[in-house]
Amino acid sequence: MADRDQVAALLSRHRVGAVVHAAGVLDDGVLTQLTPERLSTVLRPKVDGAWHLHELAGDVNAFVLFSSAAGTFGGAGQANYAAGNAFLDALAVRRRAEGKMAVSLAWGPWVQGMAAGSERMARAGMPPLRTEQGLALFDAALGGETANLVPVRLDLATIRRGGDVPPLLRGLIRVPVRRGQVTDGGHRLAQRLATATAAERREVLLELVLDQVAAVLGHAGRADIEPERQFQDLGFDSLTAVELRNRMNAVTGLRLPATLLFDHPTPAALVEYLHGDLAPDGAAELNGLLAALEPLEKALAAATVDAKTHQQIEGRIEVLRARWAGTRGEQRPHEEIDLDDVSDEEMFALLDEELSQQGD
């Protein structure tokens, strides 16, 4: 279908009353590994094939494009495939605008078909369609007036439990919106690590990693996951590697690279990497101080005060900052301070701070 001359020759030999474009090739991988050749492998049958049929098929009674939910919701490791299917959806809209027949069906996974990773998608809340369900949806789509349809099964309860509801589904699945939701997992983890010893921190991180590995692979628990075993040997591919990275982002609050599992190829190696980022030397003291600052930060963000009160608070913060700078055991550079914002008490505190530094 990607060869225009071959498509033209085929159509010249047959009278075509309807077109169903179902071509599709997968070549999944993280975005940084998608070469022009790998993009072409996926895009040519989708994009070029559909475009040739659009231009050459003439006036037909039906023009059906088999797109994919990956083009609607996105798919881990499927940037090329998602782009190709998004083109099909756009082509259907264009044909409708031109007064021609067209519908693009963004299929979810089928029990039987080329779609890989159906178990993973089911765990994410999109179980596969049975053949009879898919055929019924196909028939219903032919009688509609909509350019784009998304025939999928959705397990709303599973998606809701996952917490990260796609924006397109928030009209179907209502979840409470909480400030700081993205970093809550990382904050809770930081609190656990703050008072733990180095050995305890590693144990906490190992349990965390193994739990996420088990969830991605569909295991009931972490017991069967060997920490020293290679992720590839455990059954990971590029898609599940990205899924694990995304899960680790959510539970740690970090922004981890897409190559996380390639750079740290075992659960044990990943634990050591996370330990270095989340629990460096002095982590307990650092986390304790940062936690103590959070209530102040929230109070300041929520406060509505007059100009005078604002100046008083700003002066007090400047005193605290000056005292904190003095704890480094070195004289900080002289900085200009707006004395109009500092009370008498705070002024004396600043003078005491300066004199104490000069006397050391």
Automatic annotation (TrEMBL):
The keyword Cell inner membrane does not apply. PROSITE patterns: CARRIER, PHOSPHOPANTETHEINE. The keyword Phosphoprotein applies. Residues 203-278 form the Carrier domain. It holds the Pfam family PP-binding. Transmembrane segments: none annotated. This is Carrier domain-containing protein. It comes from Phytohabitans suffuscus.
